[in-house]
Amino acid sequence: MTGGWFRRNRWGLIALVPVLVLALGLQLEDVYEVYWKRQPREAVSPGPDGWVTYGDARIKLIALGPASDLEKYSGEPFTPPPGVAAWKAIIAIEATAKGIGACRLSLEDDAGRTYEASPSELSGSRTSLASCLPDGDPPPTSYRKDLYFATPASARPVAVRITLTLQLPRYARLTAAS
Amino acid sequence: MSPEVRSHRAPRTPAGQCLVDAGTRLGVGALVIAALAVGSVVKSYTPDTDTRERPFTRSGAVGDQVDARVFDAVVVGVRGAPKVTRQGKTYDTGGVWVLVTVRLVAHVAPTTVNHAMVVDTDGRLYKATQRFSQPLGGGHMLQPDIPAQGEMVFEVPVGAAPGLAIQLSSGRLGVRMDALAEISLGIDRATVEGWRAATAPAVVENAGVGS
């Protein structure tokens, strides 16, 4: 290989630089799509009135506290297993006619841990499966949903998270209005 | 006046120049062949896809807490029987049933154990039985720091039971490049013979919150 070879192939070598940059750029795009965008990473927080605009809906956390109204199907009070605390969240949803769609609901504690709604630790209690979808036919566009969670007894919940797959990496982080 | 054209052929290349050109072509060809040979040698000595993307195995024994990246696993106990009863129905086998009691704790986010198998000393894998519902099956969701304890039930050939280890992972699409807890169950041949001699079926216990 001599200086003549570089002279003959100079345009090919110059073109190689943007091609390599483009190839790496496409890989980065793939990394963003697969590893970043598909996870809930960007919290959408409520405004001063407590409402969060997320997807095709407005959502508000009405209440979050210990679940004291749990009962078995027999009507007797339901007690969570030892070391487990049960929590109830009430959220209000105002959806457009299009509806909010299926979502993932979770509880966040002060240590950053998250807990799925309708856990197996509360099975045996009379609670409906957690969902963002309205009940009734025709479905109302303004409604409330009761959500139940289980945490270790020492956990301190701070927020309810709502995640819609099509909105990722954004998720609604509902906290009580200040 | 232009000179008379005697021939339209290119002037003959001197013999020496021909040799140089041939040598250059031969050299380039030899380089290509050498590059292909080196590539082939490198490929034959580098790991294949299965090896390159193998899971990160964390090993342990009965009673050890093993970190499987998003959850911790402890094998609390192991038992076996020639028959098991689950939800009032008894199941026979030509091999032996192995019932492994595990305690699982998610770290910071809800997760499911999507890979639950036992592996024998020859590397053969056996999935948790699907002949009945598993106490910790059906996508049982582990909540952070709430221990879930229950039995996982495997049906294996008698000869495969000694030396079995349980594998647990959260990997949804297999265990490639993911953490894999592999816990030796401490089963020997005498233990298996004792299990096979049992007459009463082992009743599979329901899962619950562990201590």
How would you describe this protein?
The complex is a heterodimer of chains A (178) and B (211). In chain A, β2 (51-54) and β3 (57-66) form a beta hairpin. Chain A has two helices and nine strands; from the N terminus they run ααβββββββββ. Chain A folds into two domains: 3-36; 43-174, Immunoglobulin-like (Sandwich), CATH 2.60.40. Chain A is elongated and about 90 Å long. Helices cover 19% and strands 34% of the residues of chain A. The longest helix of chain A has 27 residues, at 10-36. Chain A is an alpha+beta fold. In chain A, the strands form two sheets. Chain A has a five-stranded mixed β-sheet, with no helix packed on it. Chain A has a four-stranded antiparallel β-sheet with strand order 2-3-4-7, with no helix packed on it. Chain B is an alpha+beta fold and 211 residues long. Chain B has two domains: 12-46; 55-209, Immunoglobulin-like (Sandwich). Chain B contains three helices and eleven strands, in the order ααβββββββββαββ. In chain B, the strands form two sheets. In chain B, strands 2, 3, 4, 7, 10 and 11 form a six-stranded mixed β-sheet that branches. In chain B, a hairpin with a 5-residue loop joins β5 (115-119) and β6 (125-127). The mean pLDDT of chain B is 92. The A-B interface holds A 81-84, 106, 111-116, 119-121, 150-152, 155 and B 108-110, 140-141, 143-146, 148, 207-209, 211.
Main attributes?
heterodimer; A: 178 residues; alpha+beta; Immunoglobulin-like; 2 domains; five-stranded mixed β-sheet; 2 helices; 9 strands; elongated; B: 211 residues; 3 helices; 11 strands; 21% helix
Provide the fold topology.
The complex is a heterodimer of chains A (178) and B (211).
Chain A: H1 3-8, H2 10-36, E1 42-44, E2 51-54, E3 57-66, E4 84-95, E5 104-109, E6 114-116, E7 142-152, E8 157-163, E9 170-174
Chain B: H1 15-45, H2 49-52, E1 56-61, E2 65-67, E3 71-86, E4 89-106, E5 115-119, E6 125-127, E7 148-156, E8 165-169, E9 179-184, H3 189-197, E10 202-203, E11 208-209
